[in-house]
Structure prediction request, 670 residues.
Amino acid sequence: MKPVVHYSAIEGRSLAFWGLLGTFGLFLLLGLGAVWVMEHNGHYVTGMNNHIVWGLPHVFAVFMIIAASGILNVASIASVFGKKMYKPLSRLSALMAIAFLAGGLMVLMLDLGRPDRLVIAATYLNPKSVFAWNILLYPGFFGAVAVYIWFMMEKRMNQYSHQIGLFAFVWRLLLTTGTGSIFGFVVARNGYDAAVLAPMFIIMSFGFGLAIYLLSLMATCRWTGRELGDNVVRQLKNLLGVFIAAMFYFVFVFHLTSLYGTENHGFENFILMDGGLFSQLFWIGWVAIGLVLPLAIVYHPGMSKSRAWIGIACAMVIAGGLASMYVIIIGGQAFPMSIFPGFDVSSSFGDGQVASYAPSIWELGLGIGGIALALAMTTFAIKVLPFIPNSLSDELMDPHYKAADPEEISGDSEATA
Amino acid sequence: MSEQKIDQYRRDFFTKAGATAATGAIAPGVMLMQVGQAQARPLDQAISNKNRWGLLVDSNKCADGCSDCVKACESENAWGSGSSDEQKSDASQKAQWIRTVTLKNKLTGSEHQLPMMCQHCEEPPCVDVCPTGASFKRADGIVLVDKHICIGCRYCMMACPYKARSFIHEELTDQSPDVPRGKGTVESCTLCVHKIDRGDGSTACADACTHQAILFGDLNDPSSAISVEMKKHATTQIRADLNLNTGVRYRGI
Prediction:
């Protein structure tokens, strides 16, 4: 008999479950409290200023938005590329994609100078603005992925899940291209103005998204007592390794092309050598913690067999991802713009100076609040709807696995879907 | 209390509530129209692209250490020392519409200064990136921010190659009636649009410069003083490589 994968909502009645949800809720509340402080007083309470206009909230928001589209990859691999093993992993992938986009957007929107004018952002659109394109891409992503989840859960619509999966996949590529282009099209600054930023953001989204997904999957299965086969983990961590290597390649190409032009030597010197915190974050945070060490772990013959180490590698990719966003977003602004080439400039407005930025607790609170929203949404959703398979054992997941009987099946998607 | 009296109270209440609601609904529209009219210079003529307002800055004439233009702008547009606002913001958070920049030639060591402000580009990057269209360019070339639809995203500040824009980091109370400003929105040099629309024919910075280093005028009018000067002498645009066709031109950089 061909093994069948069954899904069910998690029980979610234990003290630990409510404790977890409560913790996320608490961080979300603290984040909203931070927003209240920032919006009530104005942005003077933050570390942001007229030189670093996008601060820590953008680091979190952009990270989460690109990670969201990357999380959807797991589902795309099943529906677009036809890999059967990934199919049972798809529902959670789509759910978390929505949750992380929601979290990222929450941070982005609540950091606006006038968040009360959100409706204006939706009703007055400047067709030439990359930001405005993104404002159209976000709801499209929510819609496509929501329909995707519906098609996956509803048996009658299953047959169309390939088509909607393909649509969502193309849409997510557009979305990340849009996010990358927010920076890539800024011609004024040395640190941005590079077409390679859009594909680099897409590759980063693959890496960040898979790291978040794998970590969440391992935690969910462990805490709910559902089996997660070693082969499943092995395949996902191998894929993570490939994505990390691809990220490495793009970082290398980005800086190499930048270094080729003499006009960018100052900026490259700043990021790679003399930038203080930025150089440290680049080498220690982005390259060492975010790329080299996790790559070594996932391919290490011993460590790669340990789920604890794989979890650590995922956490490193996430930490390195945040560091990379900090270097790109804040570092790109901190380096002085070249307004008068050939001159040393000075003024009362920071011309020619490296801009200083010390993030405030409110900005950190808002950023963490966004992550808390994404995790709270995920935790709550898997309690009310059947997102997680009852078992992800190798017998079920691998069509070539030779086993007599599938794992015990309890609950049915039809009953709860 | 009789039944009739209660009914009367009710009627009064509903009449007043209705009137208040109607005022609340209409007032913002009226306000917008008034602001719109002030910007649209409606008295005798509409804004047209017949004019292209601009400035010519002669940095050779700009005197070292002088900041008269900055002070005049502050008092005309009620920012910086011209207003009691922005006490909570630190130096890097305070608005600055115009600043003097000191340039030291890396090769020769020669030094000079010049005023920097919004360059009122013909192809302004701030207008391109603004998601709502709050950053806009008037037909006469003046680049402005519509404070009613600015959402405070600061993308224009990222995109401006001249660092000409400021974000307002706190509540403001001491504004000039001619110059709308507000917490959570972005602002920059308006080329004294209220003075232009009033027909003053100059900007505060140009008026204040006793060294005649700043000349205001119509770049589209070949007989204007600015056009004549620009025809006579070589002038430059800052970051001309970006091909933005700035309305502010410089001599002596």
User: Anything to note?
Assistant: Residues 230-260 of chain A form the longest helix (31 residues).
